[in-house]
Amino acid sequence: MDARNLIENLKADLTCSICLGYFTDPVIVKCGHSFCRVCLLRCREEADATLNCPECRRVIEDSDVVPNRKLENLCTTGKRLRPHLLESMVDLYVCDHHGEKEKLFCEEDQRLLCASCLLAPGHKDHTVLPLEMAAHKCKDKIKHTLNTLQQKEEEYNVALDRVRRRGRLCKKDLYTLKVSVKVEYQKLHDFLWEEEELYLETLDQQYKNNLEKLELNKAKLSQQIQNLERMKLELEENLDKEPLEMLLDMKDTLARNEELLLQEPEVASLAWNTSSIIGLREMLMSFQSDISLDPESSNPHLILSEDLKSVKYGDVPQDLPDNKERFDVALAVLGAQTFSLGQYYWEVKVGDKTEWEVGVCKDSVRRKGQLSSLSEDLLTLESFRSGYNCFLWNSQYSIHRSQPIEKLGIFLDYDKRHIAFYDAVDGSLISNFSEIAFEGPLRPYFSLCCRKGESAPGSIMLINMGDSQ
Q1: Alpha carbon of 185 to those of 181, 182, 196, 231: distances in Å?
Q2: Dihedral through CA 80, CA 86, CA 90, CA 96, nearest 10?
Q3: What 3-state DSSP class applies to 408?
Q4: Using CA atoms, how far apart are residues 331 and 299, in angstroms rounded to an integer?
């Protein structure tokens, strides 16, 4: 290694890796690396933040920072000695080709030249300066660069201070935003609680009205029973009369009771009017699922659309393979999707269909032979008509009188064992099941339940949730 390289290596050993200058007030840390004290402390972002070694990233405790006096003395000596060493090396630069001292510097090639090298054609158009002049020019460039770096460093320090201030403000902003959000949600909670109370009060009032109606119905039926009992007694008394007297009184007796004989007992129907639940459908839409029909499960009488989004009844059965997945008697088709966890919501347009059954079923539901809506494998809502009345049959427990449903919403929460049916037009709840013992995967279920062998007009259509707003 030549003398110049030795001088440069000495400078590198006396240079701080952070500021790239000679060590000032150097310290050594437990991992063995040395830095200027100020440079090391600047690496700590906050007063109470953890300090890591800039070289190896090990954690530095305050007790690990030890002043390095010997290194400080060595730096002082190195800074003083370096100019003299470099000056003494001037006489060492001798041209290898011409044996002359190299006292010139070529700016284009960045190399030393002797007087004979200057005459070579390769340096004819180059800028060649005496060594001292070139060094002076280089020193001016270095000073200019240092000034630029100093300005840039100041800009970065200003930016760093701004980031630190924003970091401190960020926590305050978080607290303020959380408080604001809680206030707004509390408004919503209060509003929904009030709406819930109003809804429950409405149901309580409907309950009272229904009880009053039933009491009037009971009173009327009781009165009719008393009238019938009185008529029976009167007729029984006539049976004991003499023939002539019985015949004379019979006409008046029958005339007085003819109206009673024509009356029929009436049982009051209960009226439960459901209301829309504010914000319910918007919440359900966050669980919207793209459901399609499974052609492998479809009954031969059911005709599926090409996009597998709608189904209608056909009088003539199609020639389809009798695979094990296909319903052969029940006019049913399954959804292609299988649910084993999570929450899902989809909507079905039933329109003017008079009879339908929609919901979910076990993936293992019976496909061959008759399938009752009371089957434990089904969790469905069924619609049928009786005269001018429309009835909804919950496959678990009861019948509800209702206006015809145009669009039905189904929500399944597999994890909470819950399924609910909604009128997707007005956002009201129709029926729900909770704490159902789901066993295994579930699938959407659709049926055109034709009764008494009659064909069913209309169709069931799955709604594209992106277009259902």
Answers
A1: 6, 5, 16, 68
A2: 160
A3: strand
A4: 6
Question: What's the one-letter identity of residue 267?
Answer: V
Token pair, residue 249, equals 């009184």
- Are the CB atoms for 378 and 395 separated by under 8 Å? yes
Radius of gyration of the chain (CA): 48
Rounded to two decimals, what is the model's pTM? Answer: 0.60
Q: Which residues lie below 8 Å from residue 359, measured CB to CB, with a gap of 6+?
A: 378, 379, 380, 381, 395, 410, 419, 421, 444, 445
Beta bridge partners of 462: 348
Look at the chain and count its residues: 469
The H or E element containing residue 260 is: helix 243-262
Residue 396 clears pLDDT 60, i.e. is over it: no
Give the residues across from 332 on adjacent strands: 447
Kindly give the interhelix angle for 69-88 and 3-13, rounded to the nearest 10 degrees. Answer: 150
Rounded CA separation 359/342 (Å): 16
Please, what's the b/e burial string for 375-413 (b: 16 or more CB within 10 A of its CB; e: otherwise)? bebbbbbbbbeeeeebebbbbbeeeeebeebebbbbbbb
E strand or H helix at 190, and its extent? helix 131-239
Mean pLDDT of 83-106: 66
Amino acid at 54: P
1 within 8 A of 12, measured Cβ to Cβ: no
Looking at the chain, the whole-number percentage of residues with pLDDT higher than 70 is 83
Tokens matching residue 289: 């699922």
